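In response to reviewer comment 3 from the previous cycle, which asked for concrete evidence that the modeling workflow produces usable outputs, we include below a single protein chain processed end to end. The sequence was submitted unchanged, and the resulting structure tokens are shown without manual editing.
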Amino acid sequence: MLTDAEPPLWAQGGWSHAKGTPWPVPWAFGTENTTVAYLFATQLVAGTSPRVDGSQNKVLWEAKDSPSGGNVLVEGHPLGESQPVVTIPGGPSITDVPTAGCWTFRLSWNSNGPRSSTINLEVLPAGSRP
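The workflow returned the following structure tokens.
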């Protein structure tokens, strides 16, 4: 679920934000609150970027113990299905997926052993305006 609430302190590096105002970019927590996905695009749209409004499906993927996202690998697939699979690097990435619906993104990284977390995000049909 996307929110405009203030994210955890570990995920606020590089952001400037006035206290008491909505967070400037919607974001979602991963399982166990160890990962976040910031959606610069506000909402993902199926298909390739750029979208019909000229924007892109840009997402910043971060893990609590890898806040830059540089050591994070992201694999996504439609919820409850094994295919298709998209692989995206962590950090700021264009996150284009082929179909609309709910997608599960599994973030993996290594910090004192292998770690992982999942984030589910809704994807609008191709051609939609977010």
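DSSP finds no helices and nine strands in the chain. We consider this sufficient to address the reviewer's concern, and the full set will be provided in the supplementary archive.
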